[in-house]
Amino acid sequence: MARQRPVSPRKEPSQRRSRELVDLIVKATTRVLLKHGYEGCTTNRVAEVAGVSIGSVYQYFPNKDALVVRVMERHQEKLLGVMTEHLASLKDASLEEAVKTLVHAMLDAHRIEPKLHRVLREQVPRIGALKALHEQHSAYEPLVTAWLDAHREALPVADPAVATWVLIAAVDGVLGRVLVDRPGWLEQQQLARELERLIVAYLRGART
Amino acid sequence: MARQRPVSPRKEPSQRRSRELVDLIVKATTRVLLKHGYEGCTTNRVAEVAGVSIGSVYQYFPNKDALVVRVMERHQEKLLGVMTEHLASLKDASLEEAVKTLVHAMLDAHRIEPKLHRVLREQVPRIGALKALHEQHSAYEPLVTAWLDAHREALPVADPAVATWVLIAAVDGVLGRVLVDRPGWLEQQQLARELERLIVAYLRGART
Amino acid sequence: MARQRPVSPRKEPSQRRSRELVDLIVKATTRVLLKHGYEGCTTNRVAEVAGVSIGSVYQYFPNKDALVVRVMERHQEKLLGVMTEHLASLKDASLEEAVKTLVHAMLDAHRIEPKLHRVLREQVPRIGALKALHEQHSAYEPLVTAWLDAHREALPVADPAVATWVLIAAVDGVLGRVLVDRPGWLEQQQLARELERLIVAYLRGART
Amino acid sequence: MARQRPVSPRKEPSQRRSRELVDLIVKATTRVLLKHGYEGCTTNRVAEVAGVSIGSVYQYFPNKDALVVRVMERHQEKLLGVMTEHLASLKDASLEEAVKTLVHAMLDAHRIEPKLHRVLREQVPRIGALKALHEQHSAYEPLVTAWLDAHREALPVADPAVATWVLIAAVDGVLGRVLVDRPGWLEQQQLARELERLIVAYLRGART
DNA sequence: GATGAATGAGTTTTCATTCAT
DNA sequence: CATGAATGAAAACTCATTCAT
Q1: C1'-nearest nucleotide to the CA of B17
Q2: Among candidate residues D19, D30, D18, D204, the one with its CA nearest the CA of residue D117
Q3: What percent of chain D has pLDDT over 90?
Q4: Mean of the per-residue pLDDT values for chain C?
Q5: Res C116 pLDDT > 80
Q6: Radius of gyration of chain A (CA)
Q7: How many other C-beta atoms are found inside a 10 Å radius of the C-beta of residue C205?
Q8: Is the pLDDT of residue B3 over 50?
């Protein structure tokens, strides 16, 4: 299935000037990605939009995909920031609070740059970065797992890690779909409510 | 975002020979898609694999994407077949039975051609106006909604359509993820159990 | 040292039309090679000079070097033609006649397209085809060796094959140099005479 | 044939430090040439290998080819050293001694850095106006010519300069070929013997 | 209808060279 | 002097699509 070239930055931008350049390029990539999608995101176009020579692009990025990957990483860093910030208060929360927090966090994360988020979700799989995309959750999953573990007694959860995995996959699945098919819902109270219900019910559980 | 071309078959293959030709081409596209991914799925390659002239391909398909779309449609027809078959018995089922049926149906659907399924999910960019196509669920959602509607009294479900949507999005989200990150789980009992728990709990609900 | 890509034709030109196309391309390559050297022999330039689309070039040649190699092969076919024609009469020749024939043959071969010959000699090594270039002699070496073997008694030649090799390498070395540094000599009587002397002396030999 | 740029050092390295820098760069060029061939010998790579800024390279060399030329010059200086050293004793030598000396000298010269020698011969295109450089022999040819001239009486040599030229071209042709096609022979006694026979015979000559 | 030769715009990428710091 | 970031012309090559046969 081909694809799998080095994607790591070619050269660390050391001086200030370069760092700004890299920043410019990544931002341009984002814009182009938003406007033209992955196919239309050509290196020349990126360079042009960035107002930078094509050579400069290749000075810092070994190839086209490296650009996209970098955009993805930046976005994920932001997501992660939002998530961890929200989840910091999870520790001593009650079930209801915890769930509200989690849902709120995930919704907020999806509100950061919804269009970009959607483009990345749709296009990034093609460059084999789907796993990387999924692993964006791995950073805060432990927080959730820890909470579950702490409340194990009160909840019929056999394996906290698995429960976390299923939960996040489910919620993320729903949100991903919302982003693509029902972008308006992101701001709807009802969506949050349903997700909360989904989670609470699953955790309180009713063995089948 | 560019992309927006006709995608429907150029001409209905009326004679038998033509129909066989189309079939040949679609099968070839599938094979190429599996082996080389979307990027590597070039029209010339497809023609070659099909043992057919490139001109003939363009006789029946207006452009490259039409090929891929046809492959998706075929796959979805199969999915739909499996789903509706399973869901036919839904009508008078109890909650537990209904849920078991649904989960079983979705799992079975994902077992049809998992590799192709994954390639289509991962590799195929959202092609043009084809969002609808990606809503592979829309075809059987009504069946689930109908069942929910019929059992409305017994279940704290405000809006059956929304509940169906959320449910399917959640389960499909989990399964999509399983396909990519935990392919082995597809055959694991535990996965089915967790999904059933998720659904039952959500439907029996526990208002937050 | 990189370099070593497939160089064999991509597709056999089957129809008349195609054969003419390939011919056109090879001729254009020759012209470009003569005018701009190997570096300046770009595929686009070749296509342009041939009055053909760049795509057509790549239809029949997998890459740039394949073009050059084909030019080389054509040239060698001509050389070989001239050589074997001359050497046909070698069989029963006396030493003096045989040597005259050989020298005459090699000189004639170098007169075919001296400029092209020179360019190929200078540039072709770079694409790793130097051995191929040398092997151009292997086609008629046996003829010379056979003659030597037949006259073994009369000549102090220990190993006819080695003697042939040395002889041809020497003469070819001289001619190659003439081509580059003293192109005018090619028409000079004296050059032929010196080469004949070189050979005759070597074969008649005088053990050191 | 394009190509025609200044190739002489941009500025004489006056201070010690500069001389060391130039040395570093030339050595790096040699290494890169050996490892990657002429095509792969990029200025940036050279700078990197030399552990020197690309700017510094251009401080002392006006362009890429100047680098390669310098490498060639260095190599030829060494060759020349070996040759003249050997040929110093030529003066009063007998024919047999003289020939032995010459052959020995040329063989030794080819043993200096055979790989570099081969790369330079094979890979380096005739750079611009540098034919002269390729006439690596011109430096010691006079020595041989002088000897021939001194022994004119005893030898049937019409024009010593021409004889020298032919002789050296022939021997060098054989050696060049050996380098590429039969590298092992370089150490074989037989090669030396054959070359000696070739030369002695040619000089003692037998008018045809 | 079927064929497949021909097209050429459009991509990615390299690398010699410059010049502000 | 030294640096190395920045440049951008130019090269190789692809592939969807057309159209004469």
Answers
A1: E1
A2: D30
A3: 47
A4: 87
A5: yes
A6: 20
A7: 19
A8: no
Do A59 and A83 fall within a single domain?
A: no
Q: Report, as an integer, the average pLDDT of D87-106.
A: 89
Task: Say if residue B48 is in the same domain as residue B86.
Answer: no
Q: How far is the CA of D53 from the C1' of E19 (A)?
A: 14
Q: What is the pLDDT averaged over residues C170-181?
A: 90
Is the CA virtual torsion D65, D70, D75, D79 positive or negative?
positive
With tokens 């992955």, the residue in question is: A38
| C37 vs C134, higher pLDDT | C37
Give A177's contacts in chain B (Cβ within 8 Å). 169, 172-173
- Residue C10 covered by a domain: no
Locate A19 and state its tokens: 């760092």
Kindly write down the DSSP assignment for every residue of C126-189, as one continuous string: GGT-HHHHHTTTTTTHHHHHHHHHHTGGGS--S-HHHHHHHHHHHHHHHHHHHHHH-GGGGG-H
Distance of residue A194 Cα from the nearest chain B Cα, in angstroms: 8
Residue C124: is its pLDDT beyond 80?
no
A114 shares contact with chain B (CB less than 8 Å) = no
CA geometry: angle at A152 spanning A148 and A153, to 5°? 150
pLDDT tens, C53-65? 999 999 999 999 9
**For residue A132, what are the CA distances in angstroms to A38, A127, A135, B125, C196?**
17, 10, 5, 18, 75
Rg (CA), chain D: 20
**C55 beta carbon < 7 A from strand E?**
yes
| Cβ(C203)–Cβ(C157) below 8 Å | yes
Mean pLDDT of D51-55: 95
CATH of the domain at B37: 1.10.10.60
Residues A55, A101 share a domain? no
The answer as to whether A9 is a domain residue is no
Same domain (yes/no): A91, A123:
yes
Token pair belonging to D194: 């054959």
Which of A90, A74, A103, A88 has its CA nearest to residue A194?
A: A103
DSSP B55-71: HHHHHH-SSHHHHHHHH
Task: Name the residue with tokens 């490498």.
Answer: D71
pLDDT tens column, B74-132: 998 999 899 989 998 887 888 989 999 999 999 999 999 999 998 888 877 666 545 55
- Domain match, D78 and D165 both: yes
Same domain, yes or no, for C57 and C85?
Answer: no
Q: Report the distance from CA of residue B29 to the C1' of nucleotide F19 in Å, as an integer.
A: 24
* Distance separating alpha carbons of residues A48 and A24, to the nearest angstrom: 11
pTM recorded for the entire structure: 0.84
A5 part of a folded domain: no
Q: Answer yes or no: is D93 CB < 7 A from strand E.
A: no
Structural domain including C40 reads 16-65
The C1' atom of F21 and the CA atom of D85 lie apart, in whole Å, by 74
Provide the CB-side half-sphere exposure for A153 (13 A, CA): 1
Q: List C-alpha distances in Å: D21 to A6, D40, D61, D72.
A: 34, 22, 11, 18
Residues in chain A: 208
Tokens of A51: 């107002």
D84 or C130, higher pLDDT: D84
What average pLDDT does range C92-106 have in this prediction?
A: 91
Compute the distance between CA of residue A84 and CA of residue A105 in angstroms, rounded to an integer. 8
Q: Which of D39, D62, D85 is the last residue of a domain?
A: D62
What does the pLDDT read at residue B88? 87
Give the three-class secondary structure for B145. Answer: helix
Nucleotide E15, nearest residue via CA and C1': D42
Three-state secondary structure call for residue D124: coil
pLDDT at C207 over 60: no
What is the domain-level CATH number for residue A95? 1.10.357.10
Residue A2 lies in a domain: no
Query: What single letter denotes the amino acid at residue C144?
Result: V
C176, C127 Cβ separation under 8 angstroms: no
Q: Is A17 on the interface with B (CB under 8 A)?
A: no
